[in-house]
Amino acid sequence: MKTLPIFMAVLTAGCSALLCPASARAEGARDTLSIGLAIEPPGLDPTRGSSEAIGMVTYGNIYEGLMRLNEHGALRPLLAQNWSVSSDGLINDFTLHNGVHFHDGTELTCESVKFSLLRAGAMGSTNPNRAVFSRIADISCPDSLHVRIRLHHPYGSFLYQLAGNDAAILSPASVDQNISHPVGTGPFVFDEWRRGDHLTLRRNPDYWGSKPALNSVTFRFMPDPLSASNALLAGELDAYPSFPSREILSRFSGNRRLEVVRGSFPFKAILALNNARRPFNDPRVRQAIAQAVDRKALIQAVAESDATVLQSHMAPDDPDYVSLPDRYPYDPEHARALLKEAGVSPGTHLTLTFPPIGYARDSSELIAAYLEQVGLTVTLQPVEWPAWLGRVYGQGQFDMTVIAHTEPHDINIYDRTPVYFHYHSPVFHDLLEQYEATADTARRHELSVQMQEQLATDEPNVYLFSIPRQTVMDRRIRGIWANQPIAGFPVADVFWAP
What is the mean pLDDT of residues 13-19? Predict the structure, then answer.
C-alpha cells in the first residue's frame, strides 16, 4: 500500500483553535461573528449545485468529507483518520473516526459514506462532479468504521476530489432536506435563513472534534460594495472575504479597527463562449473575439492592474500553472479579418449575459465596447443569480457570458458532458485520461501543461484574468483564512483575541 502523491502545499505553522494557548480563547471573549458575502447561495446542498456561495457557507462548517483542504491547499484527513491506496491505484481504504454523528443524530458509518458517494455518481445524479464519482466501481464495508472504495481505473486525482464541496458525506435520513435545511457532521448546525438578508449557523454542542470558540456565525448577503463598506466601518460586519470592489478598499486605509488581508484563491475570470452556437462553433471566431479584447487594458480598468492576464484555465496559485505565451494578442485589425474569413458579417448581433457582481458587470461593459469596434453588435443582458445558474450554467442557453471559476484545479470541466460552454475535444480528452491514469507527480505536471496549451490553442473561452483575494476584517479576529484554496469560509478555528 502507498500514499497517493497529490497537489500539496507546505503546511505552515500558525495559531488555530487547536494550537493557541487557552489564554487566547479566554472565557467571556466575544463568541459571535458577522460575515459579509456578495452572493446568496441558491440552496445549501453542495452535492446538487456548484455555486461558490454554497461552499462559502457550508464547507467545513456544516458538511464534512473524508478529506479536506487546509488554507494552503494541502490535502488532510477529516472524517477519515487515515487512508491508503493500493499499488495499482484501484483500491482506496479509509478508517473513519469513531463516535461521529450527523446533526440529525444518525451515526456516521461506512454505510453513510457508501450511500453518499454512490449517490453522487449514480445515473441521474445532479452532482456537479458526477463524472468523478462515476469512476467508483463499488464500495464495501469490512466493518462500520472501514471503507473500501474500488475504482474502475486508476484515478490520480481521486483523494483530492474527495476534499471537494460536492464530496460531502450526507445522512441518508435527511438528505432530501439539505437544500433548505442542511444536515452534516460539522462543527456548526443550521439555525435560520432569511432569504435576501442573512443566514445563521450555531455551534454544534455534540461535535465530534474540537469545539469551536464561536457560538454563532451570521452570513449577511451584501452585494453592494458601498453598503458593505459602510457596514464594516460601522461595526455591523466583522469581516468580508474576497471584497468585491478594489477601488473602495482605500476607505479602510489607516483604520485602527479594520485591516485588509491579501491572499490567493483560484480565481479564473473568463469570457465563456457557447461553442455549440454559431458563430462560436468556428475557432476563427473565438480567436477573433480573443484578439478584439485588450486584456491588459481590461485588468487596468477592472482591477487597477493588480491581476494576472490568463491564457488558459489555470490560476497562478495552482502548482501546475504555467505562464504561456499569448497566442491571440490584442489585434483588432486581424480580428476583423478573421471574422470576415469566417463569414461573420459586420453588424452581427450577439448577446453578452452577466451575473450581478462587479467584475462581471465591469468586464462585460468593456468587452462589449471592444467587440463593437470590430464590427459586432453586442447587447448586454444583466440577470440575477438564479437566472444565470438556471439558464446559462444549467442549460447552456446563452451566446457569451463573463464568469469566474473559483474551484481549485478544475481544468477537468473541459471534458465534462454536459458543460455549459459545450466544448468537446478528443485531444484534450486523451490528455486528461493520461493525466488521471498516473500518480507520478512529474508526469502529471507535464500532462497538465499540455492540457493548458491545448486550451490556449483551441480558445473555447477567452481567458481574462486572475486576481488576488482581499479580505477586510477586524484586527482582533484570529483564524480566518487569508487564502481560499477552495470555495469555502470555514470558521471552526476562528476566535476573537482578548
Answer: 40
